[in-house]
Amino acid sequence: MTTTGTGTFDPHAMAGDEVSELFGWPVSVLDQLADLRDRAYDGQVFITDWRRREAELRASGPARPDTAAIEAARQAAEAAWIESLAGDEQTQSRLLRLSTRLGVALRGAPSDDGLRERLAGLEATLSDAPGDGDPQTARLRESRDLLASWLDPAARADLAAPANG
């Protein structure tokens, strides 16, 4: 099943397991993009590798995606997911997966400017955060450190240097 409609969106139909395409994007590519993003934010993939691999994957998507329609569908999926929180976990999982797929169709790896903006936001949040023992503060610091490493020219140079051995 291919779902590329415009106008009113049925997130439950778009979230079905039989859907193979969303707005011209093969769902397998969207899933790979989401996995790549998650691995990058887990520190398993460096930003330059994320951007390179993402460009390769995005080449198999639509040349001119309808971002307004995708965003409207993403918002509908997110609203349906929120409504489903009192329901069954399978529906929640499918709707969250749909929202994730549509989100990666819209947004790719951040630019250096985007990283700087996120880093500034994290710094501002951390300036008001609880002390070191707070798990959320620890996660925010880890995210800050990851983004800072992505912006560090020395870290990029280390990755570009040939390995000794």
Descriptive overview:
There is one protein chain. This protein is mainly α and 165 residues long. The protein has two domains: 1-109, no CATH class; 110-165. It has helices at residues 11-14, 27-41, 47-58, 67-84, 89-106, 112-127, 135-151, 153-160; strands at 2-3, 21-22, 25-26. Strands 1-2-3 form a three-stranded mixed β-sheet. α2 runs antiparallel to α3 and α6 runs antiparallel to α7 (135-151).
Low-confidence stretches: 1-5
Mean pLDDT, to the nearest integer, reads: 87
Structural class: mainly alpha
Radius of gyration: 18 Å
Count, helices: 8
Euclidean distance between termini CA atoms: 50 Å
How much of the sequence lies in strands comes to under 5%
Total domain modules: 2
Q: Trace the largest sheet across and list its strands.
A: 1-2-3
Shape: globular
Helix content: 55-70%
- Could you spell the SSE succession in H and E letters? EHEEHHHHHHH
Number of distinct beta strands: 3
Please give the largest β-sheet: 3 strands, mixed
Quaternary form: single chain
Q: What attributes characterize this protein structure?
A:
single chain, 165 residues, 3 strands, 8 helices, mainly alpha
Topology diagram in text:
Layout: E1 2-3, H1 11-14, E2 21-22, E3 25-26, H2 27-41, H3 47-58, H4 67-84, H5 89-106, H6 112-127, H7 135-151, H8 153-160
Parallel strand pairs: 1-2
Antiparallel strand pairs: 2-3
Brief rundown of the structure:
This protein is mainly alpha-helical and 165 residues long. It has helices at residues 11-14, 27-41, 47-58, 67-84, 89-106, 112-127, 135-151, 153-160; strands spanning 2-3, 21-22, 25-26. It has a 3-stranded mixed beta sheet.
